[in-house]
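Researcher: We're teaching a course module on how sequence relates to structure. For the next exercise, students receive a sequence and then see the predicted structure as tokens, so they can try to spot secondary structure elements on their own. Here is the exercise chain.
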Amino acid sequence: MRRILPTFLDTKYNIIHSQERRLAKAIARSVVKMPDITVWAFMIPFIFVFIFLRYKRASETFVLNFLFTKKLALDAALEIMKNDQSRQDVLARIEEKTSNILAADKQGVYSDRIRRQQMNEINLLLDHYLKLLDAQGNNYQSLVKDAYQTQDNYTAFLRELTLAEKAVNRVAIQTVGRGEAASELVLGMEKAAEGIRAEQAEKIFA
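Model: And here is the predicted structure for the students to work with:
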């Protein structure tokens, strides 16, 4: 693996994290809908502000939840590249962190089945982020092109990631429930993610 100066690694980390956050926000715009704004909301400013802030909170919560596994994996990849940490050690710390979250959950929202599927996703993402951190480039597009070389290779990774995310979502729905509405929301989220990623892949390798 090529050695890279820490400052370059930090820059690449920020590039990757920013891209993942942009993706999460784009998906949020597809699934978190702004409530209808009545004429009264415009006539009474604080009502409009209240509605808008509630929408922003919902969107930001979605973004943070979507980025949960991505951030864990990206931080782990940086630790491996920057501080010579072993894969076993960084994954052990993630196991401990998610176990603590599980132990603290008193409402049954999180489960060990969800956690196991998330660890599968994190393992896949860890390989992906290590490739990107080791690649040459000064923006996300150039990092992906250097890491994967061809659109077919990158698309193959995206298919694996989609399957891993869907596995987490299916177990989460089974654990939390919420019926048909939750299933429709998840399907909308998955469809939006696939569409946005496919479009990005086309642009990267155009």
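Model: If you want an answer key for the exercise: Confidence is low (pLDDT under 50) at residues 39-44, 46-50. Residues 6-31+67-204 form one domain.
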